[in-house]
From TrEMBL:
GO molecular function: ATP binding; metal ion binding; nucleoside diphosphate kinase activity
Family: Belongs to the NDK family.
GO biological process entries: CTP biosynthetic process; GTP biosynthetic process; UTP biosynthetic process
Keyword Ribonucleoprotein: no
Localization (cell): Plastid, Chloroplast thylakoid lumen
Protein name: Nucleoside diphosphate kinase
Subunit structure of this chain's protein: Homohexamer.
EC number(s) recorded for this UniProt protein: 2.7.4.6
Chief place of localization: plastid
Enzyme class, UniProt record, top EC level: transferase
Entry keywords, A to Z: ATP-binding, Kinase, Magnesium, Metal-binding, Nucleotide metabolism, Nucleotide-binding, Transferase
Catalytic activities: a ribonucleoside 5'-diphosphate + ATP = a ribonucleoside 5'-triphosphate + ADP; a 2'-deoxyribonucleoside 5'-diphosphate + ATP = a 2'-deoxyribonucleoside 5'-triphosphate + ADP
One annotated Gene Ontology cellular component of this protein: chloroplast thylakoid lumen
Amino acid sequence: AAAVPAAVYMLQDQEAHAAEMERTFIAIKPDGVQRGLISEIVSRFERKGYKLVAIKLIVPSKEFAQKHYHDLKDRPFFNGLCDFLSSGPVLAMVWEGEGVIKYGRKLIGATDPQKSEPGTIRGDLAVVVGRNIIHGSDGLETAKDEIALWFEPKELVSYTSNVEKWVYG
Ligand code: ADP
């Protein structure tokens, strides 16, 4: 058989990776922004090897916060949570990478910082559940819904990062 040029294998690898790429919605809540933790948190996702494809600073309205947390509308803390999310700037982001939805949640740590492992964002940087500094989508469908709620399609930037071949091989 004729030798297949290395470039073709590379293209096939890249296509395989592209098929596995996921996007997740990550937000630094008002407490994380006020405490000056933006660069610390962004840096953890960036250094891991994930790709930032959308980012903006926004103060959500209470109605918007209620939409974002609609799944929790019957919980006793729902009202306070929505007041809190709409109390100041939120850094809304979309991160892309293989397995980023599930592993992003690992980087974030358990919902209650008292139970988050050291080394996780909440474990290292937060103390109580009502001020746990960061949100991350918990599944594929939620990620799609949350990205669509927070961003216009044109705000999502598709681009090739030159380090991808070093992150994925
Ligand atoms: P996660 O943010 O880890 O996905 P949930 O979806 O269960 O967790 O809850 C959403 C947010 O609601 C939490 O991040 C936290 O800010 C808040 N929250 C959850 N449980 C409580 C609670 N018992 N008291 C106050 N706030 C809570």
